[in-house]
Every structure is written in C-alpha cells, then in structure tokens.
Design a protein that fits this description.
Length: 229
C-alpha cells in the first residue's frame, strides 16, 4: 500500500498541508486581475461554477473569500489521492463532493460520477459555488472534458475561469506538474467569465473554454514570472 493511501497518514498530512497553505496565502503578495467579474457574482448571489486547471489545486482556496462569496464545495475524484486532497481542502472551508465530472473516466462514473453530477447541480441550484478541475483527475493536462460545459448547460450558472500562480513554488513531478506555494513570494489571480452559449455543442464549448482557462493561467504565470510547462 502506498503510504499516502493510509487513512491515518492522510489525516496527518492533510492537517499539515492545510496549515502550510494558510501560512503561505497569508504571506504571499497577491496581484488580482479582473476581480470585478468575480465581485459581481459574489454580490449577486446564486450558483456559480469555478474552474481552474488541476495543477493549481494547491493555490485554489486563495481565490475564494469565504466571508462574502457563495458557500463553496469542491468536486474531487474518488481516487485514493483524491481522498487526501478532499481532506486538506475541507480543512480550508471547502467540503468535497466526491466523483468526477469527466465523461472520459468510465470507472469513476461507475463509482459515483453520476451521483456527483446530481450533487453538483443541487449545490448550484441551491445558490452555492462549485469548484472543479476540468482536466482532472488524470488528464491530459489542460485538456477539458465535457463535464464542466454540461454542468453549466444544465444549471445555467455562470462559469468563472480562474488562473492562479505564485513564485517561488514547488513543482511536483505529477502528471499535471502541480504547484505548491512557498511563503513570502508573489502570487497572482486572474478571472474570466462566461455562460453556456444557447444551442452550442458541448465539445465546441469545451475547446473554447479550455483555451480561455489556459489564457488566464498563463496571464497569472506571467505576472509572477513563473516559467510555463
């Protein structure tokens, strides 16, 4: 058994990771671009989808002010590694809906993907925020599956595309080259927004939204001087 899949080790590491992230977020000097589109959503209330690429999960809690934005939940896969991520983000105020929005992941759908879709729609229609990584849980990197467009189409909720970056950072050797923040550096958050276009095809929207999500992430990387991979 891999150590990270041991429940006791997961609890301890999730506690440590959540504390580390809080410390880093408090000491990073943040630049925020186009935050007005997010402010309007927060002030107006109602369900909202929040999308960022899988590599930026470690930075994602920094973009959502729990004291004034919609109550959030995070859509996280049923994989053992997903269990660890779910424990960590829950400690930061983001309880998880377990399952994948990816229609490519047949195994995950069989283990709860359909239920995750229902739970996600319930969260959105109840006026909450739903965060997800449209290239997760196993990639390919920055390739969007149709789960996010489907949720947007069914819920009619707006989608916030969120680019996050920081420097210095630890870049893991995972499939997505995930970033973990380091303290006392520079950080950037860049927003864009859209709704599902009436009459559009899911695949067409997924391609367009993938490009837009990559664009805000690249803009955030440029602001802090982080090399793209």
């Amino acid at each position: 058994m891999r150590p990270l899949r041991n429940p006791v080790i997961q609890v301890v590491l999730a506690w440590l990771l959540a504390g580390w992230m809080r410390f880093c977020f408090a000491t990073i000097r943040w630049t925020r671009v186009n935050e007005g589109v997010a402010e309007a959503i927060w002030d107006g209330g109602g369900g909202v989808l929040c999308a960022f690429w899988h590599s930026r999960i470690g930075l994602s809690p920094a973009c959502w002010p729990l004291d004034r934005a919609q109550s959030p939940k995070a859509l996280i896969s049923l994989s053992p590694d997903g269990e660890f991520i779910a424990r960590a983000v829950a400690r930061l105020g983001f309880p998880a809906i377990r399952g994948s929005s990816s229609n490519k992941d047949k195994a995950d759908r069989a283990k709860g993907g359909t239920q995750a879709l229902r739970d996600g729609l319930r969260q959105l229609k109840g006026g909450g925020g739903l965060a997800l990584t449209p290239d997760g849980p196993r990639g390919p990197m920055r390739e969007m599956a149709e789960g996010l467009p489907l949720l947007a189409k069914l819920s009619k909720a707006p989608v916030l595309f969120i680019g996050l970056s920081c420097k210095p950072a630890i870049r893991l050797r995972s499939w997505d080259r995930a970033l973990l923040p380091l303290p006392f550096g520079r950080g950037a958050i860049v927003w864009d927004i859209d709704r599902f276009p009436e009459g559009a095809e899911l695949a067409e929207v997924a391609r367009d939204w993938a490009a837009r999500l990559t664009a805000v992430e690249a803009a955030a990387d440029a602001l802090v001087g982080l090399e793209r991979v």
